[in-house]
């Protein structure tokens, strides 16, 4: 055994400047008059001192403190439903779920006063609300007093609720983003410094900050579980990927936007390059077990309520049970569990609510503007939405199935979720966060900081948050909207504050057609803001500007969907394969 004195510490390899920052990476630009190199956009300049010499474990805490500051200051502004009777918005909905889960038996969670923000999310949200409600009740019992706390606007409650979003995000979403970008950048042969640039861009994503920390929701918990699933798959651990994705579905059913792509990938790795029956069975069993584990605490609570003598007789029979072709024995031991699961599914999938809510930038709202869809039966609209969504998601899912490669996951999830957002049933404007996340993490991949990708990521995000402006305006979030959005645009070099992503001669730049398309969309967004601020709509069309916003947004999102599908098709190698096959014919 060698003595301590004989031990030589491993020499740290010197990193050359050009190996980290380079014109071909998208982080440097070249001045064509002086031939001097300069940072391609402001975010590169801000992180320039951390290039090569500073450990990422020094950089990451600094990044987290800065992005945390913007989150917390956004939370100082208004929120959904503040002093807005009668329903008081999403803030009251989340608070109410904490109230009912801490005070009522489990068997009443999905039945209690459904007209006042009845619980309509999966069990993991209920558990999350229960924990936060218990902690909050310990601090101040009045915040979640049953019935008496409804529509409470206590400033200290606001601080607590904002803190729960912040802590939940930093426990789940932020670690998931860091770990995923670390693995994804390695997979794509992107250096650590460039991955840090992508990390800042993802964590400063304006839509996520404004909705979760402004409007008030917990979307980042679901998005964090999704990223954890993708990260596990990127690390070659598909079984853990299944567990985390069930967690995403168990927190918010909107994670179904990603489900077809996840299914296509998992099925693909079971069949290509060779059939792997063991892997297929393992994935199936782990998924089933994960769903069982998800519902287990809920069902144990239901059975415990039965043991305590809490009857189901006063509760309405769930529609799913009514529609069953066979009748169940109401005296059987399993009936309460089936009864509660049926009600939870009925609440989670609200087909009775209609094709879309409010003015959302998707296909159906755009069509409804010119041809009223409410004249058609609900069943017909549901089938039309199913058919349109299927047509939209089949191409990316089929590509991922044929080429189940880890590096294709972000593009496939982006394209699939765009298809859902544009064509699915019961879409909210906030659901645009789902396609924006996988599209934004493309910045951490190969060539992700080049204008050819960065500009498309920027357009999607700027368009996405712009379509949510009417919602944010109602919540008195205009100032955070402009500050966060314009700051993000400045840092990454996007209009209306910068044109660095569109400079002529930039390496890895956009085609002329793409530049024209992008800049015209940005121009429309700017003009719309001016008109909306200073020109009142006609009295007989009070929603004219909001509808125009939705129509333009739907068109722009459709273009983003097509770009994601094309990019996925190109990156999968199917284009090259098709060309080679055509040459051999």
From TrEMBL:
Pfam families: Alg6_Alg8
Coiled-coil segments on the chain, per record: none
GO CC annotation: endoplasmic reticulum membrane
Membrane topology: Multi-pass membrane protein
InterPro entries: Glyco_trans_ALG6/ALG8 (IPR004856)
Similarity comment: Belongs to the ALG6/ALG8 glucosyltransferase family.
Full protein name: Alpha-1,3-glucosyltransferase
Pathway: Protein modification; protein glycosylation
EC number: 2.4.1.-
Enzyme class, broadest EC rank: transferase
Compartmental location: Endoplasmic reticulum membrane
Organism: Pleomassaria siparia CBS 279.74
Major place of residence: endoplasmic reticulum
GO molecular function: dolichyl pyrophosphate Man9GlcNAc2 alpha-1,3-glucosyltransferase activity
Transmembrane segments: 57-79, 127-147, 159-181, 255-273, 280-304, 380-401, 408-427, 453-472, 479-497, 547-569
Key words, A-Z: Endoplasmic reticulum, Glycosyltransferase, Membrane, Transferase, Transmembrane, Transmembrane helix
